[in-house]
Fold this protein.
Amino acid sequence: MSKSVAAQPGPGLVGCAAGDGEVVSQTEADPVNVGGETAVRPGERSDSAQRTRPPAGQQSRGAKVKAYVALTKPRVIELLLVTTVPTMFLAERGFPGWWLVVATLIGGATAAGSANVFNMVYDRDIDALMNRTKNRPLVTGEITPRQAMVFAFALGVFAIGWLGLVVNWVSAALCLAAIVMYAVGYTVLLKRHTSQNIVWGGAAGCMPVLIGWSAVTGSLSWAPVLLFGIIFFWTPPHYWPLSMKFKADYTRADVPMLPVVSPDTRVARQMIAYTVAMIACSLALVPVADMGWLYTAAAALSGGWFLWLCIALYRRARHGNPKKLRAMKVFHASITYLTVLFVVIAVDPFLPF
């Protein structure tokens, strides 16, 4: 979800989900001289990939399986699932049972994997141009586009059928909506055509909380809508700092992320606005879901801390030195914030007060 995303609770996080589904570890996020490497043309394998990977027909079975797993972006899936389980605990006001939790996670993981594979198939041309994605299996030739499409459809059909038959059809319908929102809405319609791509496209990443809630209750209510809002408003201030760091990558691939087409000060101001809306949703959850004092304190303190970091980023941006923005500090802080919040959401139903 190396150190990475909010897929694992606590400071030793295991994966960072970016808006296009990319996972960036702390060691990956810093070291590459993004502007200094020669771009790889679409469909062409990078030199490193050519040296280390055999042609597709000569791959071992283990290498092939590993390539298919990589297509699903497993560490991104971890982030999605870490928001699902606490939501289920909150919906049940306790533990909903191992079978329901496991069944929902299986369906959610395969649905997310399906959407991620569709994303990789469509984006393989620009993935070849970006340093942090040029070794993906479809760029290196380990998996063909046809094989990937069959795999994506198989995962999607399984996910929807599994959730419908084993959990309920409300969750299955939401699962289908999530796949379409990410694979078509974000990947095809938004990512290459608007600087607000990650704002509206990020809605797909909010769907696991709706799926988790409906898996327990068979319906939706205002509480999961507020959880959806927290993640929706969290996504831009989470992802735009990463886009600031890899601005040259996105420029080379002609992807109009907001930090590519707008001054850093404007990006930072919008991050502050989205963070305020995120905090408002997190505090509105207190009366709506009858949250206790531990959640209330955690939401207020962690939200205030993250807002302060966004304001500090804006102040640094006003000085006009992009090398001193320290954008990745805000990126990693966003992961810590979401992890803390959802860990407390998971704990709150079990407290006696």
Observations:
- The longest helix spans residues 293-318.
- Residues 41 and 120 are 16 Å apart (CA to CA).
- The chain has one domain: 26-350.
